[in-house]
Amino acid sequence: MPFITDGEPKPVGSYPNSGIDVLIVGTGLAGLTAAIECVRKGHNVRVLERNDDINTAGDMYFMGLSATKFFKHWPEMAKEFDEISLHNAWIETFKHDGTRMIPPLKVADRLRDAGLNPDTPPGTFQMRPLVYKMYVHQVRRLGIQIQFGKRVVDYFEDEARGKAGVVTDNDERFEADVVIAADGVGSKSQKLVGGQVRAMKSGRAMWRAAFPIEHLDKNPEIKEPGTYAMTLTRPDTMIWVMNHDVTGSEKESWNHTIDADEVLANMDKGVGPSPWSSKYKDLIKLTPPNTIVNFELFWRNPQPKWASPGARVVNIGDAAHSFLPASGNGATQAIEDAVSLASCLQIGGRDNIPQSVRAHVRIRFIRNACAQKLGFSNAELLQDTDWSQVKLDPRKAQPKLPAWVWSHDPESYAYQVYDKVVENMKKGVPFDKDDSVPPNYPPGYRYEPWSIEQIMGDMKAGKTVDLGSGNWD
Ligand SMILES: Cc1cc2nc3c(=O)[nH]c(=O)nc-3n(C[C@H](O)[C@H](O)[C@H](O)COP(=O)(O)OP(=O)(O)OC[C@H]3O[C@@H](n4cnc5c(N)ncnc54)[C@H](O)[C@@H]3O)c2cc1C
């Protein structure tokens, strides 16, 4: 079985050994961040992954500033992130029929116009394969042990012995002081942890593809950057994303590809807005085979149960809370979770693992529920843009990227509030009445359970998404 072990572990700003054995399931962004940060916090880390290798597939996602703050501890990673990031990018916005709605503007100028510092943007669009490779390089440098081909089918905990563990499909058992379930949507830990929520069909899906830019050489007109609405053009890669109504062939899987002909036939049938510009169709025709992912979008309500009864198994990332891919927060919140949990475990130490796990969940839940709601409202905005308004005011097509999301530092926040959170837990203060802890969610917000059914009901009645109390800007 392959291990990644050829590195020399020298984390910057590292902590002494905590004696805490951590077992991580999953090598998504959540699992790999947890592995890297747990090493720095002095924990002993082992990682299990069901696949035979790290899956560097995918196209693009939005990486929020808050998720990159921990790079300051990892200079090689920070350097690589800078190298793979687009500098001097510019954006223009087109309608599906090819009409230009917002003229081209340098991203830096757009940020300056919004009163933001272009050197520290709220986040950047990144290519998943490049970010993943950057993570893999860091994992290698640290010599973190990843055991591939280990499909976890069950989780358990033994409170008396202070241990938790997993069982694989080959009946192998792995144990540790704490197990981090970073195994994505539909985590196998749900049987033990509870908190399973129903996945609701949204009726929507996305065609998305990333491929080498040379494929566009056959049609130079299409190669012009910025010809399409939802595209990212990099020097070597072309990426496009189109939202559409379900056609019957989509799946919630990043490996589920379909033919270009199917996309074109559906466009001709009037799936999604029409008429589509012929330029979009030409782009699809040039997309190489086995490249277009047809990803079905599911909604899941927020749920606060992320830890097992004895708090020795804890969900992070998509395993705890899923985001719509268009909401721009799934990767960011997954990384924040990992950084927060590694920190809480360090603060509490080996004798207080369940307390630290519960404090971490309390620190993260309301923030995530708010980010999910914001993401939902942003995704709806992208989908149902009122173009007549956009012509008048480009900000109408702009997703909200408020300071409470991007300015957050999940590591320093955990150190700032941990003691107070634990004190309030001990006093029995409910998590949604914890006014003595500074918020990491919209200032002034008071958490109230909400559901997607409610939001959809409001939207069908012509109301805008009610985000709730507090300052969400
Ligand atoms: C191949 C792939 C491509 C993606 N591409 C994009 C994209 O282009 N754009 C975008 O916005 N989002 C994409 N995502 C989703 C995005 O990465 C996540 O939503 C987000 O980063 C949260 O990550 P996560 O680590 O919580 O979950 P995930 O990224 O889903 O990672 C979960 C990991 O756990 C492993 N795993 C699952 N079940 C088990 C099990 N039973 N036993 C052992 N291991 C298990 C999986 O193989 C995977 O490595 C992609 C995800 C994947 C897996």
Automatic annotation (TrEMBL):
Record domain FAD-binding: where: 131-345
SUPFAM superfamilies attached to this UniProt entry: FAD/NAD(P)-binding domain (SSF51905)
Q: Which domain of life is it from?
A: Eukaryota
**What cofactor(s) does the depicted protein rely on?**
FAD
Q: Name one GO molecular function term.
A: monooxygenase activity
What keywords appear on the UniProt entry? FAD, Flavoprotein, Monooxygenase, Oxidoreductase
Q: Which InterPro entries match?
A: FAD-bd, FAD-dep_Monooxygenase_BioMet, FAD-dep_OxRdtase_2_FAD-bd, FAD/NAD-bd_sf
- Per UniProt, what is one Pfam family of this protein? FAD_binding_3
Q: Where is the FAD-dependent oxidoreductase 2 FAD-binding domain?
A: 21-108
Q: Which family does it belong to?
A: Belongs to the paxM FAD-dependent monooxygenase family.
Protein name as annotated: FAD-binding domain-containing protein
- Per the UniProt entry, what species is this protein from, by scientific name? Bombardia bombarda
